[in-house]
Structures are given as structure tokens and as C-alpha cells.
Write a structure and sequence with these properties.
Length: 196
Amino acid sequence: MKTIIACAFAFFLYFQLAAQGLFKNQVEVYTSMTRAKENPLSVIHLNLSRQKFKTVPEDISEFKNLRYLDLSNNRLEELPSFIFSLPQLEELDVASNKLYDLPFAIENAKNLRILKAGNNPIQSIPYTVNGASNLEELDLVHTEIRIFPKELSALSYLKLLELRGVDIDDDQKDLLKTYLPNATIYFTNGCHCGPF
């Protein structure tokens, strides 16, 4: 009986500590370039959303251990190539900007798993997207993309393609299903009600 009580107490204690985040690998989320530049190699998670940036700060290229970059809800019109050359980058959120395209340099994003680029007037996906071979989630909601490159078929790890609010004809939908037979693809009719 004492063993059962001891085990129950141990589980209770474990879950209490876990709930407080004491077992998680705590990663600091930087929200300021000034603070992040103080120790560039310690920057793993950088959240620069809603800071009215028109261009991506070049100093981000110094953050060689950066894994999570949030540039959403700014005023970006283009993404510099160096973003996709960050060696550890796993997740990039550039949703709700003013991007018209994704750069060809996406082919360098070998570790990128999640790309959120919805709510932008993006008109095309570069054929070099196949270089982002570890991509698992691609969010392109409320974009202006009409034609999808066959190179998407090389994204064998892609689990989710989010295309709600994109006006795609039935032929392109069928092609996408052929290109990505193992991915979940969400379609709806475009409403042209996005932010652009």
C-alpha cells in the first residue's frame, strides 16, 4: 500500500512540475532586435510580428541558431534570400504582409518544416520550392496563387497544404491532389476578401 501511495505522490509531483514548465527546455523568445543582437548565437526564437517593418532587418542573418522566426503582420513586400539560408530555421511565419512572391532562395531552406505565408497577395510559388524538402506544413490561405508548380510533388514530407480562400480552378485542384497524394489539402472558393 505504501508503494502505491509513493507512486501516486511521485506522479502527482511530476505532473505539477511539468505543468509549471520545469521539465521543458525553456527557450527565450526575443521580441526586440536590440536585445537579440546582444548575443546573436543565443537567439533561437525571434518574434518580430506587428512591428511595422517594411524590410527584414539584415542583422537576422547573424542568428545562426535561429529556429523560429515570426515576421507576421508587418508591411514586408519582399523576403531577402538570407532568410532561407539560416541553417537551423524550422518555422517561418510571414503571414499578413504585402508579399507578392516567395523568393527562389527557398530552395536553401533545407530544415524548414513550417511556412506560414497566408494573407499576402502572393501570386506564385517558385519552382525551387522542392529544395525545401523537409517542409511539413505550407499555409497559403487568402493568397492570389492560381497555378502550382509540379515541383511541389518533391515535398514528400508535406502533411498539410492550407489553401482556404484561394480561388483555384478544378484542374489545378486535381493536379495538387496528384502532386501531393499524402498531404491534407484544404480548399475553398476564393472570396477576394483578403487584406490586399
